[in-house]
Amino acid sequence: MSMELDALDRLAASAFDGYLVRKDLVRKYSRQYPVPTYVVEFLLGRYCASVDENEINEGLQIVEKQLKDRTVRTGEEELFKARAKETGSVKLIDIVRARLDAKNDCYLAELPSLALRDVRIEDQTVRDNERMLTDGFYAEVTLSYDGVIAQQTGGRPFKVDALRPIQMSKSDVLDVLMKARQTFSVTEWIDFLLRSIGLEASALSDRAKKVVLLRMVPFVERNYNMVELGPRGTGKSHLFQQISPYSHLISGGKATVAKMFVNNSTGQRGLVCQYDVVCFDEVSGISFDQKDGVNIMKGYMASGQFSRGKENIRADGSLVMVGNLDVDVEQQQRVGHLLSPLPPEMRNDTAFMDRLHAYVPGWDFPKLNPTEHVTDHFGLVSDFLSECWDRLRAGNRVSVMQSRVHLGGALSGRDIEAVNKTVSGLAKLLFPDPQMPVSDEDLEWMVRLALESRRRVKEQQRRVFKSEFRNTHFSYILGPEGVEQFVSTPEQHSDEAIETDPLPPGQVWGANPGSGETGAGLYRIEVTCGRGSGVKILNQPTPPAFRESVKVGEQNLYTRSKELVGDRDPREEEFSVQMRAMDSDKAGAGLGLPVLVALCGSLLNKNTRGGTVVVGALNLGGSVELIPNAARIVELAIDKQAQTILMPVAARRQLNDLPDDLWTKISIEFYKDSADAVFKALVE
Prior knowledge:
Layout: H1 7-15, E1 20-22, H2 23-32, H3 37-47, H4 53-70, H5 77-87, E2 89-101, E3 106-111, E4 116-120, H6 123-128, E5 137-145, H7 147-150, E6 158-165, H8 173-181, H9 186-196, H10 206-220, E7 225-230, H11 238-243, E8 247-250, E9 254-255, H12 257-260, H13 271-274, E10 277-280, E11 287-288, H14 293-303, E12 305-308, E13 311-314, E14 318-324, H15 329-335, H16 344-347, H17 350-354, E15 358-361, E16 378-380, H18 382-392, E17 405-407, H19 413-430, H20 440-464, E18 475-478, E19 485-486, E20 507-512, E21 521-531, E22 535-537, H21 544-559, H22 561-565, E23 573-581, H23 592-604, E24 612-615, H24 630-639, E25 644-648, H25 660-663, E26 667-671, H26 674-681
Parallel strand pairs: 7-14, 7-15, 8-10, 9-11, 10-14, 20-24, 22-23, 24-25, 25-26
Antiparallel strand pairs: 1-16, 2-3, 2-5, 3-4, 5-6, 12-13, 17-18, 18-19, 20-21, 21-23
């Protein structure tokens, strides 16, 4: 079973000696024995944490023997009980749960694989391991049998003599992680993290890797609320079920208030107090046994605390909801919104949506192919990784944004909190040592990812309640001299449609009357500028009519520069101009004014207003020429989902015959001259 080590394996072996495991071995044994992946990795990490083939083979024999001797397969229950009777005790690996027997004032343990519900256990053992009172955890158990007690009436002969939870308890795990992380680049570290949870990074796109990183954030960030919807078979619940003993998966979405939060009759704290992450699988089926269950959950998601009885209880468990989209994203957006698969009491509740910090685009992750997407290489042992993640929850890394990133005015208080939490979580995952410098490049993509995953929530709120959530144009400025950048959600983007977000400096939507055969046409003009002189058109071959439009725009910029761009001298800049035709008209005639707006925006470093189409043909003298078919251009702008159209005031009379329903679909603004048009088209 030898394997060729690659560069990342060798780097990991030098940095994490004793904490690595071959992931193909994990899969081999986890399929053979009735235990989760992290249980197998716990044993492999103990005996096979090496890249030396001989050491691995020796360790495998021990692991195989322990799994064979200590895991209870279906039908072997009586065999293990008999062994305990004959030899006095038996060792096994099983989930251990406990409950209070109030009549006899003692605790009783339950071992599901042996179908035993009344096993004696010491009070102190239960106090030391409170999680066994909720849904239990996997442990190595020494189970003894006492024949004398068996003969008593109602006697309970089985007893848990010793118990060792299957999770790492070393205190220096975070120091090991921080030190080893220094030897990896950011790209190598992301790939290594993916291998550590069993995925092969080289088979995934950058977009898919970011989906996986977002899935990891709830493990390192307290009270993080996340939803992921996407196609079936993309491994949405795998991370929450198989990788960490600090995570709990609720299958089918059924939950009780007592189990989730607190049991009023016993005072026993629920799952959100016991686990780092509580994940609802098949989110469409979430239901509580009490009517106020969803309201208690909403309150907890907002504040990290809940009130039951007289006391207020704080907890820091993150809530994750995963589920399936039965149709593709485009179809889902046509028939409803992207949170429609949620249960009826949540799907149109904008207050509930507001408490979600991130919506992970599950459709950007491929259907898992075992031969392609699953790794055979080395990764961190799951219990080491999950222990590190658990320790990372204690800190906060929002400081990585302070004085470097300024978020735009469209973000509400809850939006800012959501973005801060996501960036903090990503920073902990990628830069576990707070002293590690985070480059502007890395900070920027983390901020963009955080803004996008929160904006996706906001867009669904807007679909449900448009009047309250009108402004979803999320933006940020990086650095003191930075330009405001707008972040959209890719599934809403269409090259054919006009976005409502402001465009980057130098980009303008323009429309022209077109020719008799082609009719009005939409164009996207893109201009960049740098030191030099003159204007260079990147379209090759350049349509003669578009060359004329650029020439007219350029001359108007030079002759009216004081009025248009103030003290900036356009003759000291070299402009690169590119045109993209969106319709059958490709000539680019009559685009002088859109070109002028793009040149000015690029020079002034100002964004162009979102959702806006600029219309106007200039002549060399600077006056705006008459538009022959203004109504047709307005119809085109509405078809392309524009919100505003800028037209010369001389076109006003032509629009008197525009049907009433078209006036309600778009805002038509008029300008008196080219300087007025530039002023109205650019964002202040």
